[in-house]
Amino acid sequence: MSPRRSYDQYCSxxxxxxxxxxRWTLLIVRELxxxxxxxxxxxxxxxxxxxxxxxxxxxxxxxxxxxxxxRLPPPGAAYVYELTGRGRELLPVLQAxxxxxxxxxxxxxxxxxxRAHWFALPLLRGLDGLSGEGLVEVRLDExxxxxxxxxxxxxxxxxxxxxxxxxxxxxxxxxxxxxxSRGALTLRDAVRAGRVEVTGEGAVAKVLRxx
Length: 211
Prior knowledge:
- By secondary structure, the chain is an alpha+beta fold.
- The chain has 10 helices and 8 strands.
- 38% of the residues lie in helices and 17% in strands.
- A 5-stranded mixed sheet has the order 6-5-4-7-8. A 3-stranded antiparallel sheet has the order 1-3-2.
- This is Winged helix-turn-helix transcriptional regulator.
């Protein structure tokens, strides 16, 4: 394993960047906030990363206490990577970074890859404060994902349909979701304008319909 690089500065920001400042590291955290992932799953959802770089980043993150690796019991019998408590503490960091970077999104470029679950963290931010806890399923043109409000100790989102009956289901087009992600439109305003269809009988659905 390569020696850990450091800015060698007695500064908390520099220390943080020692651990997460390398290219791809925070995007790996973004993926693992959705729960344990196999190496092949991570590689598929991080288009552009080489296998060598991904393997190196995962080793560095394990060394720095951000992730752990464990073997699934049969019949899975595959290794998965997951965030430690220290790694999960990067959620608000990623959300703040996403909010800061939202104005730079602009129109999607022809070369831009996209995955439905990449909208999970911006939408989670938009749902903040609507209800204490809840499971929300989201359907976009690109696919489905779900988010947990008030999640503690587990994934904050997941790919695909909700694993159980959600408190709310949201259906919206990608254009609306992109506008919410950029901060050009709030989720409440999108619901009021009829750009988001809300179904379900849970507290979250009721709050959104009353927005």
